[in-house]
Amino acid sequence: MKTVTLTLTNPSELYIEGQNVTPDNFAGKKAAEIAALDVWEGKQKGPLGKYFTVEGDGGATAEETKIVLRGDCTRVKRIGQQMTAGEIVIEGNADMYIGGWMKGGKVHVKGNVDSFCGIGMEGGELIVDGNAGHHLGSSPRGEWRGMQGGVIRVAGNAGNDTATFINGGTIVIGGDADIHISTHGEGGTVIVKGNARGRVGGQMVKGDIYVYGTIENPLPGFSMVDEVEQEVDGETARFVHYIGDLGERHPVSRGKTVYANLYTRL
Amino acid sequence: MSELLIKNGFVFDPLQGIKGDRMDIGVKDGKIVEPGALSSPKTIDAAGMTVMAGGVDIHSHVVGPKVNVGRLFRPEDKLFKSPHKSPTCSRMEMGCSVPSTFKTGYDYARMGYVFVNEAAMPPLHSPHVHEEIRDTPIIDIAAMPVFGNNWFTLEYLKNNEIENNAAYTAWLLRATRGFGIKVVNPGGSEAWGWGLNCEHIHDPVPYFDIAPAEIVKGLIETNEFLGLPHSVHLHCNNLGNPGNYVDTIESLKLAEGYAPKNDFGREQVLHITHLQFHAYGGDSWGNFESRAKDVMDYVNAHDNITVDIGQVTLDETTTMTADGPFEHHLRGLNNLKWANVDVELETAAGVVPYIYSPKVKVCTIQWAVGLEIALLSRDLMRTFVTTDHPNAGPFTRYPQVIAWLMSRAARDETMKTFKWLERTIDATSIDGIDRELGLYEIAQMTRAGPAKALGVGNTYGGLTPGMDADIAVYALNPEDMPSDPAMIEKAFSRCAWLVKDGIVTVRDGEVVAEPAKRTVWVDVKVPENAQVQRDIYEHFLRHYSVKLDNYSLFEEHLHNPRVIEVDTTQ
């Protein structure tokens, strides 16, 4: 695997749209060609090299390409958007839409990210060591086909509207989550290891949510059915099991109605 | 002014009966002229290419409030589907199934179209319709106000007051700068106000106690009483349901005994739109089947009816119609987001996204039904290409529809992708149809026929000297047609040249100029009618949320009008 290192040496005044920073776009390109790729700053288009110094060449394919971003990328959006393979490591913070519409590969952010990260994700892995903003692993605005697959791990807290319209895949939040988790969900799993504020699983049809801490304002559409012991994210624990959202339509499979499951840890 | 000579093309003009003759077409001051009348024209070399009049779309939802609801509530329809600004266009383009106004104008022009008839204008919202007409570049647009659920219309027709209904119709056409009489699910959209529907043409409308059949017959009588350019334009009851072909044929029979009366060359009294949605057999989705043959047997035998196909293109799209109850029904089938609105005394509307998938049996049968309608037609001057944009598919797929009509191989290629191919073949006759249409027939279905049926065949849809110089040149050689149907689709997607009003508008598929576009409307002069004026005054006083003085379109909303005048007082 070949490594391309981008160091932010000339920070932008506005936010940068960095959707070209993916292993797919860097593959097969020399450092100079990578530096010539377009990025947008506001309404102006400029070469990547205007902001970053580029060291190293891309690998032959996306799979063989690793990108390391150094410097304060708080003003860089859309890194790893629509990537299908390879690896990206962001040494510090990054802005919105990191790993959006990812199909494969891995993105590791060592700092915090802003909103809309991992939205419309179909596969791959997004790891955030700090906190994430709103709409983590959510569906794009208006879209009813949300996260299809892949894994998102956030060590810290997440904002609101996590996993809206989730269809598949897993989201693990190490800290707390704000309101609205898995709204309209039709599959997938969300694990919140801290507390959740409320509106957990609103209009959810199918899928699972685990909350280890407390839910400040639980929804009335969920009904307790039993207590279960389950293995979650590598550890076994006892949970109270609720089904819901009882106000929503639910499919019938083999004569049994399928509900969304909400588990809170005992 | 400017002169233009389009030389040596193979000309297809059904209005003059020209079938691919190698001819020159002259253009002077925005009109078609005899080539000999030109002194020093610029020349377009069309050798080895097909020359037709600019395209005319008889039924498409491109402007107005429900289209805009579609744009607003489907941001995902724009995501990754909006190209950056074309270097040759003045405005940015957005969207796919519900494109922005600018993209709508540009894409129609790229396909060689110059006239589009907006299929449903809620009268109360006509200012919005006209503002969007202004913002849609290049193409001339007419808009039909909806009458089939209008309280005035229902009351007059219940009492069989055709003359009063005609006076009201003339007033409303002027108030909205409308083009003709559109009828959507007659009675059913009004019944939707009670949470009901009129699925059959003899179901009574609640409160008004009139049946859809009486509404349609009354409106045909009104239309012919006034002598409007276009006929009644009907979206039948019971759209989209298994077994609805029975209701459709009953609706078609309502036109029996009526003859056209107009000065515009129109020969039909009833246009049935998106017939594909109305030609289904079976009594459930399980035994859903095509009844295109039954419906087309009737259409073929009756000259006073025209139809458009409403071809399903197997895309993800956005359905939108003034048929409010149908959209609610559809939402129940696919569980996607739904918008619904009631327009006071006039109409209703709904919007729901829909995916026509080649993996779903009902969708692939629908696809076959549309093509059967076209291919079983014996008179293509009465059968027109539409996708009921965006209901059965976006208008940008017309080139694909043309390729399916012109090539059995193109149909076979698409059918290979069907999950339920055997069942689709069993439920339809598509596999037994080898007919392949030619360029002359395509010209009938996409320009000459629609223009004649709309009553604008003296201006649009043909290449007779004196008509508007709207000319599309396609890179297709009729003497050496490509064996690959994809090439046909490509040629019709991006015309080699489009001349609109004598101005070169598209060149090699790119928009190079944006000539002034027009709003086409029909101004009908009727004798003063004190009773109707009093009724209008009363209804606005008691029932409307706006005042009468604020209702009619203000002149500043009307963009570059082309008025078609009808005088019934003579």
Describe this structure in words.
- The complex is a heterodimer of chains A (266) and B (570).
- Chain A has 266 residues and is mainly β.
- Chain A has two helices and 21 strands.
- In chain A, strands 5-1-6-8-9-10-11-12-13-15-21-18-17 form a 13-stranded mixed β-sheet.
- In chain B, strands 1, 2, 3, 4, 5, 19, 20, 21 and 22 form a nine-stranded mixed β-sheet that branches. A five-stranded parallel β-sheet of chain B has the order 6-7-8-23-24.
- Chain B is built from 18 helices and 24 strands.
- With 570 residues, chain B is α/β, with parallel strands linked by helices.
- In chain B, strand 16 and strand 17 (347-355) form a beta hairpin.
- Chain B has a single domain (54-454), classed as TIM Barrel.
- The interface between A and B is small, with 6 and 10 residues.
**What is the overall shape of chain A?**
elongated
Unreliable segments of 5+ consecutive residues of chain A? none
**Strand ordering within the main sheet of chain A:** 5-1-6-8-9-10-11-12-13-15-21-18-17
Number of helices of chain A: 2
Name given to the CATH homologous superfamily of chain B: Metal-dependent hydrolases
Low-confidence stretches of chain B: none
Beta-strand portion of chain B reads 15-25%
Along the chain, the helix and strand elements of chain A come as EEHHEEEEEEEEEEEEEEEEEEE
Compact summary:
The complex is a heterodimer of chains A (266) and B (570). With 266 residues, chain A is mainly β.
Task: Fill in the keyword field for this structure.
heterodimer, A: 266 residues, mainly beta, 13-stranded mixed β-sheet, four-stranded mixed β-sheet, 37% strand, elongated, B: 570 residues, alpha/beta, TIM Barrel, nine-stranded mixed β-sheet, five-stranded parallel β-sheet, 18 helices
